[in-house]
Design goal:
Blueprint lengths: L2 H10 L2 H6 L1 H13 L1 H18 L5 H50 L2 H5 L3 H43 L1 H48 L1 H7 L2 H53 L5 H42 L19 E10 L2 E11 L4 E6 L5 H8 L7 E6 L2 E2 L5 H5 L2 E4 L8 E2 H5 L8 H10 L3 H4 L9 E2 L8 H14 L4 E5 L7 H12 L6 E5 L3 H4 L4 E6 L2 E4 L10
Parallel strand pairs: 3-10, 3-11, 6-9, 9-10
Antiparallel strand pairs: 1-2, 1-4, 4-5, 7-8, 11-12
């Protein structure tokens, strides 16, 4: 695929972000232009010293000019610091906005789309690509753009000072072009390969961390290390090639600039001998040339960051412009009471039938149990109720309103879900329970934890609800994690509670306590209880099983009392 059009399209992606910063961008441009003035002042001061102060042996003028040059240096530093501060604030704001937009895009993606994405690779792309774009923006605004302006201004000054010597630079210009275009494609290819192999390395490290137990149990340490070493060697080889090309370009360009300097000395010396040019004028021109070459070095050193940043724009664009249609686009908001009805609902996964003509009613104050073999469609049914998927045929309603007319995001806030593998994050127990409830108070969190049976272990901890979990902090068992997830689900008084295989981590006595607490709440939520355990499903009022995609009413299992 031709990369040039893609890069042009991806660069257009940033135009709206730049428009938001247009006044800062304009001011930054003027400030960059103003930064050229101290350089001009320096060259003219040097010219004055060599052409007038030294020939006239005026020590005071030399000292005064030296002080002026020092002032110009300090002014250059001050302008650079000010300009960098403004540019960094602008670029960091743009990159931050891109990152926020990426996260918002992830939340807008349908579950069908995210199910088909490699989330580990997506995470790496977002984090690493935006970091490279951040470095690119910094390189352009704080190095490339100011250096280009100053170099251009110096070039015009050198033409005015001595056009013959300036014309000598054009002899070396084709050499710079040849070096640039000869190594441009190999550098881009090496950079792309390095990025892809580095992403593979990052995914490999992630797998190693997630599968430590599996690797040990299978005795596959040597095999896994051999597999990862291949990826690490690929990173090493591609990194070596990319860095070699980068340093080669830099050294060749530096050599070209050195050739330019040698040519200037030779031609300039001849002009001085022929009395076409004075020695003072040659020295002033050479001082301007040194400054010019210094700016070119700054410009060239910024190119690698710009190149890697441009290569990273395309994957970011692909995420931001990913076509995806929301399953439901309704806007109606209701005071959900817990009534959910599935009427003759069917659902397919990529043309593979999963649910066939399912009809189910969930009512406030009623507990419905659902059993079924692995892969029978229990999780799919939950995702349909949550509005993550839309049925192929049939209809789902909440309090009699079709899902197609409802704001599903608002509806989900009235549904409490306890998944098989709850998600907890590094933070306090209070923060984990109160996640999503910004105004939750400590008494409310304590009450939810008591309902979930989590208070029994929380209140034994030294810091109780302020105890930190995750990382090297308090380590929780599977049952304790699920208790916290249950407390989180109960905190906002949901009208519908979905318990997905609570018996995987919670013991029967805790589940009986929780179900009893739910039955005696001061309001009556609907409850969907998914479990393979007949003793757990016996807690329900209605019983169903999924068999070959169809929902079948079943008898209440025999309840065994635990002594």
């Amino acid at each position: 695929m031709n990369q040039s059009p893609n890069h042009q399209l991806s660069l257009k992606l940033f135009i709206p972000y730049l428009k938001e910063q247009k006044y800062t961008l304009i001011f930054s441009t003027f400030l960059a232009i103003f930064q050229t003035l101290p350089t001009f002042g320096f060259v003219y001061a040097v010219r004055y010293v060599f052409e007038k102060a030294i020939p006239e042996r005026d020590l005071f003028a030399v000292a005064l000019t030296s002080g002026f040059i020092l002032f110009l240096g300090l002014l250059q530093i001050a302008l650079g610091v000010w300009s960098n501060s403004i540019n960094l604030k602008m670029t960091k704001s743009i990159v931050a906005k891109v990152r926020v937009d990426l996260l918002e895009k992830l939340y807008r993606l349908s579950r069908h789309t995210t199910d088909h994405l490699d989330l580990g690779q997506l995470q790496h792309t977002i984090v690493q690509a935006t970091e490279r774009i951040d470095r690119m923006a910094d390189a352009i605004c704080t190095r490339f753009f100011p250096a280009t302006l100053i170099a251009f201004a110096l070039f015009l000054f050198m033409i005015k000072l001595q056009w013959i010597l300036t014309a000598c630079l054009f002899v070396t210009t084709p050499l710079i072009g040849v070096v640039h275009f000869a190594l441009k494609k190999p550098s881009q290819k090496a950079s792309t390969l390095l990025h892809s192999t580095f992403e593979a390395f990052a995914q490999g490290v992630g797998f190693v961390l997630r599968a430590l137990d599996l690797t040990h149990m299978r005795g596959a340490k040597a095999w896994e290390l051999r597999r990862q070493k291949e990826t690490i060697q690929a990173v090493c080889d591609n990194s070596q090639r990319a860095m070699w090309l980068h340093h080669t370009v830099r050294d060749l360009l530096s050599g070209t600039l050195l050739f330019s300097a040698a040519l200037i000395v030779g031609v300039g010396g001849a002009l001085v001998i022929n009395e076409t040019l004075t020695l003072q004028e040659l020295m002033v021109f050479y001082a301007a040339l040194v400054l010019f070459q210094r700016q070119l070095n700054v410009l060239f050193n910024a190119l690698p960051d710009i190149g890697t940043g441009r290569a990273s724009i395309l994957p970011i664009q692909q995420i931001l412009t990913m076509s995806d249609k929301a399953v439901y686009q309704g806007k109606k908001v209701i005071d959900f009471s817990g009534h959910v009805h599935l009427n003759d609902v069917s659902f397919n996964y990529d043309e593979q039938p999963v649910l066939k003509g399912v009809s189910l009613s969930l009512e406030p104050g009623r507990i419905v149990s659902l059993t079924g073999a692995n892969g029978s469609g229990k999780s799919t049914l939950v995702r349909l109720i949550l509005g993550f998927y839309g049925p192929k045929s049939g209809e789902i309603t909440a309090d009699g309103c079709p899902y197609t007319s409802l704001d599903l995001s608002h509806l989900r806030r009235s549904i409490g879900v306890v998944p098989q593998d709850p998600v907890l994050f590094s933070g306090t127990i209070f923060e984990n329970i109160a996640y999503g409830e910004m105004k939750a108070s400590m008494p409310e969190v304590r009450y939810a934890a008591t309902l979930a049976g989590a208070s029994r272990f929380i209140e034994k901890l030294p810091k109780q609800y302020e105890s930190e979990i995750g990382g090297m902090n308090v380590r929780l068992s599977g049952g304790q994690k699920q208790s916290l997830a249950l407390a989180r689900a109960l905190l906002h008084r949901p009208s519908l509670i979905i318990l997905d295989e609570p018996g995987n981590h919670l013991d029967l006595s805790t589940i009986e306590l929780v179900m009893n607490n739910i039955r005696h709440l001061d309001y009556k939520p609907a409850v969907l209880l998914i479990s393979h355990d007949t003793q757990i499903s016996a807690q329900a009022d209605e019983h169903y099983a999924l068999q070959e995609g169809r929902l079948i009413a079943t008898q209440k299992p025999s309840l065994v009392t635990i002594e």
